[in-house]
């Protein structure tokens, strides 16, 4: 898949801006008033106790049919009501999670000339980047990132992965293999909860060689965090996102009605959310929910987002088993490659992408 050939303007690394010691952010990063993270908008109900659901996935492996059923129901409710949940006892070893996070932190603290060897472009986005979207003059987010492909296997190219720090590629390969297994387990749970065959969603994504890619987000310290965002409000265009957050530095916010809930990450938990493709396949039974990232004036933040996606060339449409005269198909068929071109051209734009694809009534 390709869009345009190059970035419309010279790329400025946000980490370099932060490291320069500036006390005001450039105008290019100042969000409109309606998009800024106002303090009142992040206050939670009930004395700051509201958070996304926390689910212990150990129940899925218990061998006890009642515990398995109860755990699946918790996952299903979270997908219908929140579109987000945190998962503990998910099967990925805590040491591997820590190693993956640390090796990427080490990458972002290498000299700029080393990171620049991996500079990306809009044709594939693979590599070291500092912006989404190619709209000239767009307001930018306060973050850098690294994007790479893992599945399908024909897209994985280790030469495009950082060779430094030492053993980086081996750690990332092992980590992604384990997180993909978690994604496969969750897809079975989602399918069963929707009343579909257990392998329905996985087959709709292309079987064992579905799409999977990693975006590592690096949010440098920001002198004016009330004026900007690390990542603008959006729903994820893919199928399912498995996020390894920085448990020491909260930053992810999830929209809940007209409020923004700041997620409190638990140590060695994954934050899991529904993407637009599962919203489409489930005919909106499961919801992809807007989220954004705020930044910190004193501490950098790093997170790893594994996007578990359909193969790019496959048509995605509501499951026929979920369509009836009383519940008609809400979305028109579209390939994932066509769908994600929107965000690659325009950048994150709330829920406008999936809403624009609703079938005319």
UniProtKB/TrEMBL annotation:
One of its GO terms (biological process) is regulation of jasmonic acid mediated signaling pathway. GO terms for molecular function: dioxygenase activity; jasmonic acid hydrolase; metal ion binding. The keyword rRNA-binding does not apply. PROSITE patterns: FE2OG_OXY (PS51471). InterPro entries: DIOX_N, IPNS-like_FE2OG_OXY, IPNS-like_sf, Oxoglu/Fe-dep_dioxygenase_dom, Plant_2OG-oxidoreductases. Keywords: Dioxygenase, Iron, Jasmonic acid signaling pathway, Metal-binding, Oxidoreductase, Plant defense. Residues 209-310 form the Fe2OG dioxygenase domain. It catalyses: jasmonate + 2-oxoglutarate + O2 = (1R,2R)-12-hydroxyjasmonate + succinate + CO2. Its cofactor is Fe(2+); L-ascorbate. It comes from the Eukaryota. Belongs to the iron/ascorbate-dependent oxidoreductase family. This is Jasmonate-induced oxygenase 3. It comes from Spinacia oleracea.
């Amino acid at each position: 898949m390709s869009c345009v050939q190059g970035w419309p303007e010279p790329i400025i690394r946000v980490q370099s801006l932060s490291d320069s010691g500036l006390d005001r952010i450039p105008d290019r990063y100042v969000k409109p008033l309606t998009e800024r993270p106002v303090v009142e908008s992040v206050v939670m109900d009930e004395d700051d106790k509201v958070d996304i659901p926390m689910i212990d996935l150990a129940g899925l492996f218990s061998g006890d049919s009642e515990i398995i059923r109860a755990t699946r129901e918790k996952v299903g409710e979270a997908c219908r009501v929140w579109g987000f949940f945190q998962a503990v006892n998910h099967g990925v070893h805590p040491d591997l999670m820590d190693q993956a996070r640390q090796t990427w932190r080490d990458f972002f603290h290498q000299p700029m000339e080393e990171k620049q060897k991996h500079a990306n472009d809009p044709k594939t986005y693979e590599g070291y980047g500092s912006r989404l979207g190619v709209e000239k003059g767009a307001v930018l987010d306060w973050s850098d990132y690294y994007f790479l492909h893992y599945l399908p296997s024909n897209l994985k190219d280790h030469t495009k992965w950082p060779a430094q720090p030492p053993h980086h590629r081996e750690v990332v390969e092992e980590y992604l293999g384990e997180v993909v297994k978690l994604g496969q387990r969750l897809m079975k749970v989602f399918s069963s909860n929707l009343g579909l065959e257990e392998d329905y969603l996985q087959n709709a994504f292309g079987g064992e060689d579905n799409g999977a890619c990693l975006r590592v987000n690096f949010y440098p310290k920001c002198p004016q965090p009330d004026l900007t965002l690390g990542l603008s409000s959006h729903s994820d265009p893919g199928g399912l996102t498995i996020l390894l957050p920085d448990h020491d530095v909260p930053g992810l916010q999830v929209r809940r009605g007209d409020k923004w809930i700041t997620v409190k990450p638990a140590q060695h938990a994954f934050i899991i959310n529904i993407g637009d493709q599962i919203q489409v396949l489930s005919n909106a039974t499961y919801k992809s929910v807007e989220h954004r990232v705020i930044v910190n004036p004193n501490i950098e933040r790093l997170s790893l987002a594994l996007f578990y996606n359909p193969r790019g060339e496959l048509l995605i449409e509501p499951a026929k088993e979920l369509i009836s005269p009383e519940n008609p198909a809400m979305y028109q068929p579209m390939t994932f490659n066509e769908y994600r071109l929107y965000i690659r051209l325009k950048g994150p734009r709330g829920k406008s992408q999936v809403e624009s694809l609703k079938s005319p009534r």
